[in-house]
UniProtKB/TrEMBL annotation:
<feature type="domain" description="RsdA/BaiN/AoA(So)-like Rossmann fold-like">
    <location>
        <begin position="5"/>
        <end position="404"/>
    </location>
</feature>
<dbReference type="Pfam" id="PF22780">
    <property type="entry name" value="HI0933_like_1st"/>
</dbReference>
<protein>
    <submittedName>
        <fullName>Flavoprotein</fullName>
    </submittedName>
</protein>
<keyword id="KW-0274">FAD</keyword>
<keyword id="KW-0285">Flavoprotein</keyword>
<feature type="domain" description="RsdA/BaiN/AoA(So)-like insert">
    <location>
        <begin position="190"/>
        <end position="351"/>
    </location>
</feature>
<feature type="coiled-coil region">
    <location>
        <begin position="112"/>
        <end position="139"/>
    </location>
</feature>
<keyword id="KW-0175">Coiled coil</keyword>
<dbReference type="InterPro" id="IPR036188">
    <property type="entry name" value="FAD/NAD-bd_sf"/>
</dbReference>
<dbReference type="InterPro" id="IPR057661">
    <property type="entry name" value="RsdA/BaiN/AoA(So)_Rossmann"/>
</dbReference>
<dbReference type="Pfam" id="PF03486">
    <property type="entry name" value="HI0933_like"/>
</dbReference>
<dbReference type="InterPro" id="IPR055178">
    <property type="entry name" value="RsdA/BaiN/AoA(So)-like_dom"/>
</dbReference>
<dbReference type="InterPro" id="IPR023166">
    <property type="entry name" value="BaiN-like_dom_sf"/>
</dbReference>
<dbReference type="InterPro" id="IPR004792">
    <property type="entry name" value="BaiN-like"/>
</dbReference>
Amino acid sequence: MAKNKIIIIGGGASGLVAAIVAARNGAKVTILERKERIGKKILATGNGRCNLTNLKCVSDAFHGGSEEFINNILKQFNTEDTLAFFSELGIYPIELENGKIYPNSLQAGSIVDVLRMEIDRLKIKLECNEEVMEIEQKNNFVVHTKNDNKYYGNRIIISTGGKSSPDLGSNGSGFTLAKSLGHKIVKPIPSLVQMKSNAGFLKQLKGVKVNGLAKIIEDNKILREEYGEILFTDYGISGPPILQLSRIASTLIHDNINVTVDIDFFRDMTNEQLDKMLMDRLTSMSNRTIQDNFIGLINKRLINVIIKVSGIQLNKKSGDITREERARLVNSLKKFTLNITGTNQWNQSQVTAGGISTSEIDNHTLESKLVENIFLAGEIIDVDGDCGGYNLQWAWSTGFIAGMNASK
């Protein structure tokens, strides 16, 4: 029986796993990579340490698509399967925090290296600097590249990524290819990305890092909240909690819906408890100005901003603060509000929300329902995950499933 000739478009996380699985299953595999080397986006994951999966990998950590589609994929190739796959390649995994799994080397390069060694061992053909421009459907497929080269195969796996981090390879070209094949694209928007605000005090706070509970608000309703280190910038806010909330913000802003983020700097205290603490503090240090009183309580550069947004005169004596003014201080510390005007662009986003509609993809094989022998894997599909290794797990899972079924 003749071997399947599989062309994999995109040498990122999902494409590399798909190639390895397909080759192990007897297929003749060619990878076409747009950039000068494979796995460039993998090298940037986990701040260069590669958070390759998460022990708490459940469907709730993923967005877009349908829950049934996501669950079917994760059941077929889960976290344990990922750990076994990379263990076989020589990766010793460690858990650092909140179920996040990294290679013991804490080097993303280790992941790329072992994948590359397996590709070499399996004699998979790798062509870099080959940007695919067209997929021609004849008896089989003819893939045309920007360099005027042609590649022939009877199965195609499109694993080009989304639009995030285009300098690392994902420039949205896969969506163009999918459209040419008749696929519907759910509007791609940046996710896991910093938020912009028009707050007037941002320049004063540039570089300030604080722990807080960030809540994304629409029409006075809390849509989601996340706790962690928040970074103020001259254009808005960043940090892990903000990235987690950014998908919602990006979606709402795209739909021209007003959105705000409220920050609670004292999440472990109720308003009443914080009010009593402030009253005791103001009373015991009544001769200090309100600015000096707050030193040691909150970040020093945040003090004047909190006082101003509370409508209190700077340098006012602590003993002269009224009950109403104290209530406003409590409100500012528990509900520090920023109007969100947008997000940063694709070059600063970690993942793409949106992509090929899951309704057009078989949720067991990842074969296109529109074009026989075309398979989809990775970020090009309308599924994206939270921070914490979920997006790489999606890449490994979809890559494995697409590679396995394309090679049957």
